[in-house]
Amino acid sequence: MANALTSQMYGDYNATSPLRPEAREAMHVAMGEIGNPSSIHGFGRAARKRIETARASILNDLGLPDYRLAFTSGASEALATVLTPATQSLATKQRATHLLIAPTDHVAALQGHGFDKAATTYLSVGRDGAIDTQALKKALSALPEDAQTIVSVHGANNETGVLQPIDEIAALCDVHQALFVCDLVQWVGRLPVGDARPAAIIVSAHKLGGPAGIGAIVYDPMRLHLITPLIRGGGQERGLRAGTENAIGIAGFAAALKTACDTMAGEQQRLADLRDRFEHELLATHPDAVIFGRGAARLANTSCFAIPGREAALALMQLDLDGIALSSGSACSSGKVKASHVLAAMDVPPSLAACALRLSLGFATTSADIDQLLTSVARWSTPDRGLESPGSDKISRKNANLTQSAIGESA
């Protein structure tokens, strides 16, 4: 995808997607409307109707029309709202007492949950980053009989694209009456939710071509009761999230998801073909390259790779000089230079993890973009040429000023 101003190749869709034309149009229309959805006059009722129409559209596109949806400012707020001891199981009538979570989960879950250390168990994952379901079964069985557990799972990893076995996890949670909370931020719009039917799923619009600043908790009202909202005051969203609803963002959210779902099958095959071509040609020219999670089920759009000895921090700068936007790790870490917790949990040696880059493709990615990327990689990864760009001086490690914008980790 060429940026209108700089002709850059954008390969960082897992951090945020460009706005889909359909979302842009829906938001443009919404900007022309007026009315607070909580007002009782005609303008307010019309605004409320538009929001409820969008809410129903999102639930239908997710294949969960019997669930409820509470809009939030995004996935981080949604996770913090659900992953708390105040969340109650309607089956057992108990509030949550324990959290099971994988070390590869998003930092918004790992750092944003409300459980203390004694009430938190970290699940083991394999070398590919997938949860060991036998270990999960043992962990659930080992808890006290009166425990009410939340199992938090990042369905599709933002760094590696590795998919968790959510159907198996859901079945285990049902047997043990645990509440299955699934972060499907990277999953939704790329894969069907299927039959797993977690107690709650987390969704974010800007990962699927909608606007930033709008997300949702989608939950089963027959299994889960959310008691304590993070933001109180107005009673909006069934009391789960106070504040006037973001009607413009909601309109863009619904339009983006509809387009993503309508084009899903053909688009994901197209992206898989582009990703596979990149990986095939990378390995052909760099037999020592490593593609993380390659043997596991992955998102079609994601490739997390490393060329040993070529540190990601410098590689990202070279790619940027060549007009290419990739990432290393997760952008939600705001440019901090540190090892990926995901790769660490997968037992990747720190020296190799420091070389990891993430390519994530999307609806505007073209075959020409892959050509441009391969040309750039060949330029800076060749040992006798080093990290350099046409017309620029060689970048030295000593003088490299690794700024926030150059090495932000993406979510």
Name the descriptors.
411 residues; alpha/beta; Aspartate Aminotransferase, domain 1; Aspartate Aminotransferase, domain 2; seven-stranded mixed beta sheet; three-stranded antiparallel beta sheet; 14 strands; 34% helix; globular; disordered C terminus
* Percent of residues in helices: 25-40%
H-E order: EHHEHEEHEHEHEEEEHHEEHEHHEHH
Overall, the morphology is: globular
Q: Which CATH C-level class of the largest domain is it?
A: Alpha Beta
Topology diagram in text:
Layout (H helix, E strand, L loop, with lengths): L8 E2 L10 H11 L10 H21 L5 E5 L2 H8 L5 E2 L8 E4 L5 H4 L9 E3 L10 H10 L6 E6 L11 H10 L3 E5 L16 E5 L10 E5 L4 E2 L21 H16 L1 H22 L4 E2 L10 E5 L5 H10 L2 E2 L15 H5 L4 H4 L2 E5 L6 H15 L22 H4 L4
Parallel strand pairs: 1-13, 4-5, 4-6, 6-7, 7-8
Antiparallel strand pairs: 2-9, 3-10, 8-9, 11-12, 12-14
Helix pairs in contact: 1-7, 2-7, 5-6, 8-12
